[in-house]
Amino acid sequence: MRLSRYFLPVLKETPADAQIVSHRLMLRAGMIKQASAGIYSWLPLGYKVLRRVEQIVHEEQQRAGHIPVLMPTLQSADLWRESGRYDAYGEELLRIRDRHDRDMLYGPTNEEMITDIFRSYVSSYRDLPLTLYHIQWKFRDERRPRFGVMRGREFLMKDGYNFDLTKEDALHAYNRHLVSYLRTYERMGLQAIPMRADGGPIGGDYTHEFLVLAETGESEVFYDSAVTDLTFGDREIDYDSVDQCQAILEEFTSRYARTDETHDAAIFDRDVPSERQKSARGIEVGQIFYFGTKYSDAMGAAVQGPDGKQVNVHMGSHGIGVSRLVGALIEANHDDKGIIWPEGVTPFHAGIVNLRQGDAATDAACDELYKGLAAKGLEALYDDRDERAGAKFATMDLIGLPWRVTVGPRGLEKGVVELTSRRTGESEEMSVTAAIDRLA
Ligand code: ATP
Ligand code: MG
Ligand code: MG
Ligand code: MG
Known about the structure:
Blueprint: H1 21-28, E1 32-36, E2 39-42, H2 44-63, E3 67-68, E4 74-76, H3 77-83, H4 85-88, E5 94-97, E6 103-106, H5 111-121, E7 130-139, E8 154-164, H6 167-187, E9 193-196, E10 206-213, E11 219-224, H7 242-253, E12 257-259, H8 265-271, E13 277-292, H9 294-299, E14 302-304, E15 310-312, E16 314-321, H10 322-332, E17 334-335, E18 338-339, E19 350-354, H11 360-375, E20 380-383, H12 389-399, E21 403-407, H13 409-413, E22 417-421, E23 427-430, H14 432-439
Parallel strand pairs: 3-7, 19-20, 19-21
Antiparallel strand pairs: 1-2, 4-6, 5-6, 7-8, 8-16, 9-10, 10-13, 11-12, 11-13, 13-16, 14-15, 17-18, 21-22, 22-23
Helix pairs in contact: 1-10, 2-6, 2-10, 6-7, 11-14
Bound molecules: adenosine-5'-triphosphate and magnesium ion (3 copies).
One magnesium ion (MG) binds at residues 209, 284, 287.
């Protein structure tokens, strides 16, 4: 993409009403625009990152054997009356009436709708196990929408639902989700720690939240510092292996790590040496639940078991905050100049800065770079505007592409361009061809 043809409405001023760094940077980098309280338009740069996050979530869900669907945002209130949540959910539920006076709602989550789909088609244990998920906009009329996309009212969530014959099978689905989430966050360059949590309005007491440690996080967390040493890496996973998934759950959850809702000071003191006891703030980027037959009982979702008897299915639901993750990624990856995208989610692979736009040699070298990267499948953002070098550098630093290639007449006389890492600030001179090879 050539910057002269792109739409990147960068702000010079720091927006006064944005309280946390990710919100400020998303506004300044022209990633989002508030439409109304807690509701945002995603501008081209923000939309690109959102799509990359979404893509990783899709790939990892499907790798775990989960099947994508797409359910609507608007739901009939009748389904929610069946589960009892139409009244129980409270003020966060946006209730809507259509022209025929039918009660509708903008879905904050989809347990009812997916259970309805399931009961309409599945009647035998032979069709189990089954996990369906979608990535769809949700609406929760949050009391205090704030921090930009971190606590929006409209937000993008991946929510998946498992249906199993027995509790053991459903717990395997739970473990499979935990494993797939570890992989998902790590691919984004993010450490998200599974912590014991509380069920809330989804219900169920078998649940973990995934938290990214950050001073601006809204959750208070307590953990054994040893949990921050764990990494998933690129191990081979057989998602059908009950033992392997269980072992990974144990590896990642046996040490103390809890949110304030479930924190127990006595157990913390008993189990964790004092020098490893940490309390901090965290951003909830996902949560997994096993809630048994709560919805299948209420809504009559049963299958015929191997013995011919009807059994209400065991279920769980599993969410990832896709739009919140974009904010969380910035909270975890920035400096005073701007964002520093991890390679896994960066909107462009590299930026090209032409120091003398209109000069035949620098223009030609930039074109060669731009096309050479494209030929390797790498999308660059080429700053071909007639701007001062300082302004171009400031824009690149703000939007945080992992690599910048600077092309100027002085370097080209020696046959080199400069490759700079956004994260370390280190630069190296090399030929155009070498720069393309290095980035590929
Ligand atoms: P929170 O405690 O932050 O209100 P939650 O526990 O109510 O979140 P869940 O029902 O667990 O949320 O939804 C799954 C995921 O959706 C959360 O882990 C979070 O990442 C994301 N999410 C929830 N509410 C919002 C919101 N208002 N804005 C953006 N993302 C959200
Ligand atoms: Mg909430
Ligand atoms: Mg929560
Ligand atoms: Mg939650």
